[in-house]
Design goal:
The protein has 101 residues and is of the alpha+beta class. Helices cover 51% and strands 21% of the residues.
């Protein structure tokens, strides 16, 4: 048996839990049987007993949250720039096809 960690949605809250199963598929099926279909939020991760995940302190969690927010904002900026570039190119194509007299 292997130990798998998963984030599971239970009544609108996300909870990390461990499941013992032979493979990731069996672990997912056990969780879905117990908590309902589509209750697994993240993919299952196999954990060795030697490399247990330690919870973050509140200060570490706050910093990690800020870092994650910065990454999301940077991705949003890149996506917006790409959208504006495409929109501008579409306008140029439209003007080239239909020149105003």
């Amino acid at each position: 048996m292997n130990k798998y960690l998963a984030s599971v949605r239970i009544k609108g809250r996300t909870v990390k839990m461990a499941v013992f199963a032979d493979c990731p598929l069996h672990a997912r099926l056990i969780i879905e049987y117990q908590f309902g279909m589509n209750s697994v939020v993240s993919s299952l991760v196999q954990v060795n007993e030697a490399s247990a995940i330690k919870p973050l302190t509140p200060d570490q969690a706050r910093i990690k949250s800020m870092q994650d927010r910065v990454k999301r904002d940077q991705q949003a900026v890149r996506a917006e720039r790409a959208r504006q570039k495409i929109h501008h190119a579409q306008q140029q194509i439209t003007q080239a096809i239909n020149p105003k007299n």
